[in-house]
Amino acid sequence: AAERRPTSRLDPLLRRIEATPGEAWPAARMAVEAGLSVSRLHAVFRAEHDRTPQAWLSDLRLRAVQEALAGTTTPIAQLALNAGYSDQTALTRALRRATGLTPAAYRKRHRER
Length: 113
Description:
Number of strands: 0
Distance between the termini: 27 Å
Helix content: 55-70%
Largest sheet: none
Number of helices: 7
Structural class: mainly alpha
Order of helices and strands: HHHHHHH
Radius of gyration: 15 Å
């Protein structure tokens, strides 16, 4: 059984973002959605997730793309846009920074398993 953390006032916001990670989610919009000031949003994110809201969002988007690369044949450019990257180049930079692989190489490696 997964360890259940206490409910956070961020939970509704996080579920909403997880459902639509490709939308524009600047900190100001997140704060409004969570009913917090931007500075309070940052403080709560730091306390509960040990990162900024944008770092959390970047991680979420990258995980979504990695799952899609491994499990679908959706074109990489489309995955990039779906996840909220400005273009395929932005996704390539982010994935290479995180994994050392381009999206095509990541897909190939995780398809061979």
